[in-house]
Amino acid sequence: MDYALQNMDVGLVLLDGARRVLALNPAAVRLLGERAAGLVGASLHDLHPPSHRAKVELLMAAATDPAAPASACSMMVALPGRVLVVKATALAPAPAMAGGSAVTALILMEAARPAVADAQIPASQPPKPVAEPLVKLPVEKGQGIVLLDPADAVYLQADGHYTTVHTADGAFFCGLPLSELEARLDARSFVRTHRGYIVNLRHARAVERQDGRAAFVMAAPGAPRVPVSRNRADALKKRLAL
Length: 242
Hints:
Blueprint: H1 2-6, E1 10-15, E2 21-24, H2 26-32, H3 50-63, E3 74-79, E4 82-91, E5 103-110, E6 137-141, E7 144-148, E8 153-159, E9 162-167, E10 170-174, H4 178-184, E11 190-194, E12 197-200, E13 204-210, E14 213-218, E15 225-228, H5 230-239
Antiparallel strand pairs: 1-2, 1-5, 3-4, 4-5, 6-7, 8-9, 8-12, 9-10, 11-12, 13-14, 14-15
């Protein structure tokens, strides 16, 4: 345990009073990967899709409340290949920093590490990304991550750089982009119908055309319709023998 803590990357992101990113340390860059590019100066609000901003606001409010429990000041964020724990805490204003305005620190830690230590991978042979099949869909619920059975997903909808997973029981936020989900979900059931949608064919009830455009009618409350783009229509027709 002590060895693991000594070798744990702890990322630090500083926000000014307007919740813009002031700075981040090298560990935060490593943990965030490509998402770290262009963060300095960006608004924390703009980095999250509308469906996720209310949760971020609760996190920031708890960071300034001395009586808030530790769980309220933390949230889990699912990124490709890892899950991060984000803890927020407000720092006392300092005249020499950010014009004397309040500063908030976001502390990033990886919740789970690969079983093989990074040191065992030769520097001359960087690991190649492998699209491993997803056995569970990591979605957010409350203050934690719920592992959803992919079979329960009716359809998936792009939400900026993230995804909304629609089920018969409601919609859930997933931190993985739609492109990664397409590569890792079972292609026998999940098909890309549109640049912004993936359908689980096991929940498809019908295909309808309206104003010259096709759409899947899904077997879920409200019978939601998922659009089919014209450039994918022919491939889907062959797939379904239409």
